[in-house]
Amino acid sequence: SYELTQPPSVSVSPGQTARITCSGDALPKQYAYWYQQKPGQAPVLVIYKDSERPSGIPERFSGSSSGTTVTLTISGVQAEDEADYYCQSADSSGTYGVFGGGTKLTVL
Amino acid sequence: EVQLLESGGGLVQPGGSLRLSCAASGFTFSSYAMSWVRQAPGKGLEWVSAISGSGGSTYYADSVKGRFTISRDNSKNTLYLQMNSLRAEDTAVYYCAKGGNWNDVVGVNYWGQGTLVTVSS
Asked: How many inter-chain contacts (A to B, CB under 8 Å) are there?
């Protein structure tokens, strides 16, 4: 079955830039979506279609794509950004969804 | 305001069945694909199933194919997940999620608060 690979953890100091990667063979063909999940809460969409930002999401959140890797970038990280982040995409046929394993962002 | 309210979770024995419901409001339900996503305790998100706006196309994870059935009643603005032959590994919080109209299978922009399903004897 199709898999998306994320680093288990990323740590940054406040004000620095955090980059979270997600790799998958079908990413050149399928869009990626990014979700933020804080403890005890439902996930929130922060990036859609690789690089689009939903209304209400701060501008410090951005997304990019290059080949088989997509990247979520959080510029000027704030303490409130500490959370788990998940990428999501579909297999090459577009009929099977998958999430990455998740990345815990720690703000030092 | 988009609202998604799941119900139907609970404790069930292995091999048993359960039907989850998700009541939707605040948007034109029939125009959007819907999904079920689950999260086992302390684990990551797992895509379970999705259904197109009309209900004519359905999609399943390998882990639930043949045991779970997704459906919707657009006249009642309600999404369902019929779960049969439940296993301990199906224990999770089940989230109902609204598609963002980009793709039937992935990309959801609203989530419910989830309903807990526990499979245990």
From this structure: 67
